[in-house]
């Protein structure tokens, strides 16, 4: 119906059509079913640490059963995970109603049971929790050949990662209409390279309904990301002192997150980026016309911060807590812009003079005081790198420095003994739409850090989904597939990552289509700008 | 973190920030809804409301009456809507504990009366319903909510409306119904309220199609026009001709017979018809991947080779196979954009044309009519794109439904000749035309130019078309919504209710509200008022304003 319409995208369509025809000619029979998928590659994302495979194809029973062996503890999380993955794996087979009595009701499957062995009974989810696992799809040869599928892990969270990998081994075969595992036997031994593999979600610039946040968390688990950095700068503060994020709905329940094995780190960004606080408590503004940073002079400001942190401590059990501290810079331009309100408001100015402070001293004073409050609530404070850049030697030594402005900050931070999170905005800010998938992929958190003991201080990295131009309608397609590129960087061994560009691209395209199949709106991989629509008709596996 | 980054959108951000600040100053605490409007989309045909606020029990129970009350479709529908309505309450156990709320709710039971026990879903099925929500008036012990409908599908529409009356109140942390008591009596203006989905240009996974069907039910759309195959790819399994789906893009981008049936039954549970399309004789190149004989020649591949019996045997085989999957009485045969050059340039077809004393145009007519006969022999009513009507209206089978697309004015001509018609004027209702603003979608009128009532009755309705060249699983929902909702109200609500003078102050706030409702329900509906559809929001801000 569209060839008559002379709309702007028509030219693209023509171009893509040519490309497509070209491929058609190249592929001999035209609509090539295997479309050049390189069978020698391993289509597991992120790539496991060690793996070997064979060349047998096995069928998986849709009534796959689970047995768990382990030291008591709560396996509810695991059972729930198994159910989730079973739904993912057997999505297709469920529809057998029309031709139930026609062909293929195969009573004999190669794999009918999955055994999970968990060594530890603890279900505590904290930074550095053991996520390692081994996964076997192997045969034992007695009288007859019996295939066994076993996931072994120290913790239930390791087992969840193993389940994800298992689900990626399973693929629906349209010819036999059954779920198959090809290239068996499999032996996979896997663990993450970094403990901290994060995604920042900014719920302040646009509100995200709970459902949208849940689906983001769910999709994170597909790429083995482990941490959602949950940012809500515009807090709504109710009279009773209860703290809610915007519209009160945006905090995902603790239970939900544990189920996916994902940490949630909250951020309350002080003293800048806090103008909205004053909507309920105007006393927090330096004055009615000059509204941030928060008024440094009043005890009320710190009482309130303390109150907020107490309230939300119970919701966010994770040991790290982000205190922001960014963009209150003290260089000339920035201090003029950003601590201007302190200088211009008479009572604040008087207070500064009385305490013999310049604005940048007051900034330090504020940050350190907020750190103390967080520590008193048994949290480890995380700060954006400005605090480190401005007064490294005053920072609490437990501070985790969160890099963003550019490369080279983590090397400096770890040299001074601080822990560090890598989020160089040139490569890992997902709102920078002109960063291509391979630039994301080849960004290395340990770059410039040679010393092994210093390397250990880099706890990982985080891709940041700032919310200026994302809302519920497009957040997933802005996050994916590029977040997956970073996820593999953070999970897989450095050797595995040094593969050639082309094979990584094929694997990433495959993973993007996997996300699509699972209902995640991952955008085409190779468009020049991220999240742009496909440029024309074509297969998900090429675009 | 972003003020330092000198990316292009930075300037916009500042601008929007300024706007936002000024809004903050202006309106105190952000967006206020105009309470005089009725935030139900599409607008019911008759309703009255009051000024009470009622609370709804999260343990809302269902009681059914009437012959159709025990339908599985109804029960599942109720459970589905309960999940939607009480989404929030479940996530905040901590706060509930802190507050110890244990109050009595005004509405604890929803009563649904369904008069007929038939679950047959055919065009024109009775979708009317009445919905009544009132507080305990002293005579009865509890307040009540009642839906009464003739069919289970009418009851589903009533449930959708009921769910839109319910809103979560963040202060009391409970679900409330505002402006009660409500009395709503509703029925659709058109029987055919469609959305076309194109799974040939881009394959859409089953889950995505289900999400789309689910979202259609929120706007009371009721026909999924599934443009399954086209020249680019042939994803559908046809058991009688098992090589046809060799024309799929890859071995994973296919639909089994079971997948297709699952789509149909998933849609039926929501009162949605699935109308399949097999577009002949043009737009069929991909068929030849498995059966190259269908191509006029290996270098000239469409339209389908008209000279061979095999071509028509195969069409008949496809239709027989898929008739079992698609019970809906309408079946779309395409018939559009047939460029006959391959027929006249391929020697054996040219010879055939000469033998039969046909011009290429005659051959096109011959093909379309033969395909119509096949469809009719399978007990289907054929639908054709308007080209067939434009080219040979007097030859078309009188049962043909003419599907307009090229421009305005076609339905008036078609109904004047006694044909039924579906309105899809591409200037207004092609969703891939990204430069059509919501108000143009909204004000497109299927009955324009048709004044005679009996002719008006021949317009079955209309359909928005989501062609797939630049829409795949990543962005199809945001291209469909919210503009499909504009058409949905046009097709459901009374014409008088739509023709208001100031669309910006009366319709737009409701349209914004519905877009945010879609977002809350997990549908990626794009900002409503951007110049181009499906564009990202231009800066920070509330969903209710963007």
TrEMBL record, chain A:
It comes from Hibiscus sabdariffa (roselle). The keyword Glycoprotein applies. InterPro entries: Beta_hexosaminidase_sua/sub, GH, Glyco_hydro_20_cat, Hex-like_dom2, HEX_eukaryotic_N. This is Beta-hexosaminidase. Residues 44-169 form the Beta-hexosaminidase eukaryotic type N-terminal domain. Keywords: Glycoprotein, Glycosidase, Hydrolase, Signal. Residues 1-30 form the signal peptide. Its EC number is 3.2.1.52. It catalyses: Hydrolysis of terminal non-reducing N-acetyl-D-hexosamine residues in N-acetyl-beta-D-hexosaminides. Pfam families: Glyco_hydro_20, Glycohydro_20b2.
Automatic annotation (TrEMBL), chain B:
Its EC number is 3.2.1.52. It comes from the Eukaryota. InterPro entries: Beta_hexosaminidase_sua/sub (IPR025705), GH (IPR017853), Glyco_hydro_20_cat (IPR015883), Hex-like_dom2 (IPR029018), HEX_eukaryotic_N (IPR029019). It is an enzyme of class 3 (hydrolase). Residues 1-30 form the signal peptide. Residues 40-165 form the Beta-hexosaminidase eukaryotic type N-terminal domain. Transmembrane segments: none annotated. Keywords: Glycoprotein, Glycosidase, Hydrolase, Signal. Residues 190-494 form the Glycoside hydrolase family 20 catalytic domain. It catalyses: Hydrolysis of terminal non-reducing N-acetyl-D-hexosamine residues in N-acetyl-beta-D-hexosaminides. Belongs to the glycosyl hydrolase 20 family. This is Beta-hexosaminidase. It comes from Hibiscus sabdariffa (roselle).
